[in-house]
């Protein structure tokens, strides 16, 4: 299944389907961000700053499906039909207001939610919850020492927070640590490992590390400290050993060890809309591209054919 967030709510449909195969699964007042946790929980942040949790199984079972997806008579209406009699999960608000950003992922093989609470006179708060099959357990709250933190992400068993004034913050069970970014006008940060990543602006990416200079050398020492892009970046991603830059007309793929261009993909109205880091070797990356021949925007996945 594929979930798409719009100003009207969340639309759900099959990966291999047309626009007519999608239906409005969750109607709310403007979807700002969504995520799927552990394959069973759909999380939606609306424009009022509320963070809601929905049972994905119930959405798939109960939503009215278009005729092309309706099963034949006598057959179950969804893959989870045989599990409908399980105890109904009672999820709802994770946080009712002031959520700036959230992320889902895993830390030490535990599925977690991390969300930023802003809009307070004091510093922003990072809240970390663990998903326990039928309920959520708060692990910890961090007063991260920033009033303008604006984005959180999870990758490589760590949580990373971005702030335009303070740089990048790495959060784990031992606490948090800020690294001042040398990247002017920073647009974002993409993690490379649990202790390193790239901060980037519209045309350059700088390597950021959370390891002290006195620590033993790592494989990151062979990576370029700065990588230039020819296009105007909107977002960056990593499929090791490549740093991928997304712009409206071009996807630039750079080799992190040499800084040279490995491949260029072209398109129209390109947007990187989803990145997730799991226990697999490569992250999941989805981008949308407009096809002018039929005026349709399609969602595609970036998959490495080989890595050297």
Describe the protein in words.
With 308 residues, the chain is an all-beta fold. It is built from one helix and 26 strands. The strands form seven sheets. It has a four-stranded antiparallel beta sheet with strand order 4-5-6-7. A four-stranded antiparallel beta sheet has the order 8-9-10-11, with no helix packed on it. The longest helix is centred in the N-terminal third of the chain and has 7 residues, at 56-62. Residues 67-87 have low confidence and may be disordered.
Give short descriptive properties of this protein.
308 residues; four-stranded antiparallel β-sheet; mainly beta
Helices and strands, with pairings:
Blueprint: E1 2-6, E2 9-13, E3 23-27, E4 31-37, E5 41-46, E6 51-55, H1 56-62, E7 93-95, E8 99-107, E9 110-117, E10 125-132, E11 135-143, E12 151-155, E13 158-163, E14 167-172, E15 175-179, E16 188-193, E17 196-200, E18 204-209, E19 226-228, E20 235-239, E21 242-246, E22 250-255, E23 261-266, E24 271-276, E25 284-291, E26 296-301
Antiparallel strand pairs: 1-2, 2-3, 4-5, 5-6, 6-7, 8-9, 9-10, 10-11, 12-13, 13-14, 14-15, 16-17, 17-18, 18-19, 20-21, 21-22, 22-23, 24-25, 25-26
Assembly of the depicted chains: single chain
Instruction: Supply the number of helical segments.
Output: 1
Order of helices and strands: EEEEEEHEEEEEEEEEEEEEEEEEEEE
How much of the polypeptide forms β-strand, as a percent range? over 45%
How far from one another are the termini?
A: 32 Å
Radius of gyration: 20 Å
């Amino acid at each position: 299944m594929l979930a798409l967030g719009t100003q009207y709510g969340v639309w759900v449909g099959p990966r291999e389907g047309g626009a007519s195969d999608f239906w409005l699964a969750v109607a709310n007042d403007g979807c700002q961000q969504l995520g799927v946790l552990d394959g069973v929980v759909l999380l939606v942040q609306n424009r009022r700053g509320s963070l809601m949790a929905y049972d994905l199984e119930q959405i798939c079972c109960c939503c009215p499906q278009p005729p092309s997806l309706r099963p034949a008579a006598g057959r179950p209406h969804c893959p989870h039909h045989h599990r409908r009699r399980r105890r109904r999960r009672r999820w709802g608000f994770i946080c009712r207001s002031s959520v700036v950003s959230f992320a889902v992922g895993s830390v030490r093989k535990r599925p977690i939610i991390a969300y930023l609470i802003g809009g307070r006179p004091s510093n922003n708060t990072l809240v970390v919850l663990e998903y326990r099959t039928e309920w959520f357990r708060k692990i910890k709250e961090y007063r991260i020492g920033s009033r303008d933190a604006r984005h959180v992400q999870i990758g490589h068993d760590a949580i990373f927070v971005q702030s335009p004034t303070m740089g990048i913050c790495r959060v784990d069970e031992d606490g948090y640590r800020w690294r001042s970014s040398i990247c002017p006008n920073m647009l974002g940060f993409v993690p490379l490992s649990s202790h390193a990543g790239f901060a980037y602006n519209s045309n350059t990416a700088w390597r950021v590390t959370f390891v002290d200079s006195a620590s033993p050398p790592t494989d990151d020492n062979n990576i370029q400290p700065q990588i230039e892009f020819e296009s105007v970046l909107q977002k960056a991603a990593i499929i090791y050993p490549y740093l991928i830059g997304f712009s409206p007309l071009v996807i630039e793929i750079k080799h992190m060890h040499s800084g040279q261009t490995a491949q260029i993909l072209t398109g129209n109205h390109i947007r990187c809309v989803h990145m997730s880091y799991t226990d697999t070797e490569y992250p999941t990356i989805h981008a949308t591209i407009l096809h002018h021949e039929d005026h349709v925007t399609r969602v595609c996945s970036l998959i490495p054919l080989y890595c050297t």
